[in-house]
Amino acid sequence: MNAKVSQLRIILDWGTTSFRALLVNGTGKVIDRIETEEGIQSVRGDFLGVLQRAITPWREKHGIVPIYAAGMIGSRNGWIEMPYVPAPADAGALAAQVKTMQLPDGGTITFIPGLTDPSAYPFPDVMRGEETQLVGFGLNEDMTVVLPGTHAKWARIAGGQIAAFQTLVTGEIFGTLSQHSFLSKVARKPETPDWEAFDKAVAMVRDDARPAGLLTRLFAVRTGWLSGALSPAEMTDYLSGIVVASEFREAKSLGWYVDGARIAVVGDDDLVEVYSRVAKAFGLILAPAPDDAAVRGCLAIAEAVESVRRSA
Amino acid sequence: MNAKVSQLRIILDWGTTSFRALLVNGTGKVIDRIETEEGIQSVRGDFLGVLQRAITPWREKHGIVPIYAAGMIGSRNGWIEMPYVPAPADAGALAAQVKTMQLPDGGTITFIPGLTDPSAYPFPDVMRGEETQLVGFGLNEDMTVVLPGTHAKWARIAGGQIAAFQTLVTGEIFGTLSQHSFLSKVARKPETPDWEAFDKAVAMVRDDARPAGLLTRLFAVRTGWLSGALSPAEMTDYLSGIVVASEFREAKSLGWYVDGARIAVVGDDDLVEVYSRVAKAFGLILAPAPDDAAVRGCLAIAEAVESVRRSA
């Protein structure tokens, strides 16, 4: 076993509602994983205690392993508030702003900073965690990359850097409307996605010749039901199709892609399938993307950090 | 007292969450009113019982008085499902489609139909109740009229008729996001509207040179807070300003008004102030509008119905 393979690290994905730790080797292979519901909002500030209890079995077996964390654990409501590195930025720029904290057991935890786009209107835009996924996806080819989520990000990779990005709150709109709105009051959510209803909404938005927006389009969930064109079982996925397709139209109007462009969809959950489907419906070409971009990005930044420290 | 003044009618405003009855004379003066929380969703189908118990004091004092009802009580979840009259339509067209039901006490209740715009994309648009407000506002002058609400309506009056209309789900977006979203999670709602924060958001949306939409603009609530530009107390009204101003931009892009146009805002609650404020910020001229348009419209339709019946 060469040195790279045997180099273990722990990668933390510690979000608002869940705690996830991955034990990975130097090639990014996941050796073991721990998942609990001890999200940031439930641990009452005892970050150290929760972390140490969780990784005790690994410490007993492997000794002290350096820990890296990206995302919301480094936010205002997290363990420490990390700065935002201004775009354009690459792995080196992110590595230069990490903060490493000594732990009582002699180990360390290193927090990766977020990214800001100071050119955004009206306030600087922000991401936490997606910058690490973008590094893991790779910054070699100039391309637009979409990262779906509660607050989806559209990012532009150019010249080996994350050049610019913008947030679209698509997931939040879908989540709140599907759960709390009159619009979808009579909706019955199917157990598996109703892709036919979803595709119908995507085509409706794509083929709309008017310069309409979300406020007008959303009412089609209700008028479709009232007119008998949509059944209660179709409404949730029709809503989803409207919202995601509207995101693609809005992103296009803002210059994030042109007709027939090659883009990537990066993430690790069902939303990648949803967004890839819409991208294809809009005639875009999908670049391949790994489903472990977060792990790859964390390792790339860790290596940049450790390389600087070795040469210092 | 002439015959018109002494002609009493009961106007019902029976919505999803509340019951309201007005006793009005022939000039539209409100003589008495009853309000309870017995909305459509709480009466378990006993519409007749709830109505009769509520108006017993009036019947004892004034005898049998004809009852008129517009809006959601005539919807799929209400007492009876009334048809939608297709636009273009005027008071006469609405009066021609009313349904009158005999009540056990010898009185009558007359339901006013809704209105549909069959030209809407992708499904026919619908309104229930707003058509009566539009009649009460008056159809003499060609003009665009905005009716704020959970599902706001933009209507075009032309040639003495309601010519066309469109629904924008602005109130629903604001309501669900202000109560349930991460966006406004740290917001502290002030007791009185923070007009300064509201106006700041309206100007931000109005002055945005980009062809942005709601999905990108909404994130400014969060980035404004993160960047220190917005305090938690300002966030709710900033959100409100973004949503309503985005409605005005979307309505303009769809041709509902041109720069400097004369429009009216019709309704009977605080939203009229909110929308009038945005209209002025967008350089529009406000036509005067009565705050009892619903009562006036109901009476105009009632008179059309009764006039036809007298001459039959």
TrEMBL record, chains A, B:
It holds the Pfam family DGOK. This is 2-dehydro-3-deoxygalactonokinase. Coiled coil: none annotated. It comes from the Bacteria. InterPro entries: DGOK, DGOK_C, DGOK_N.
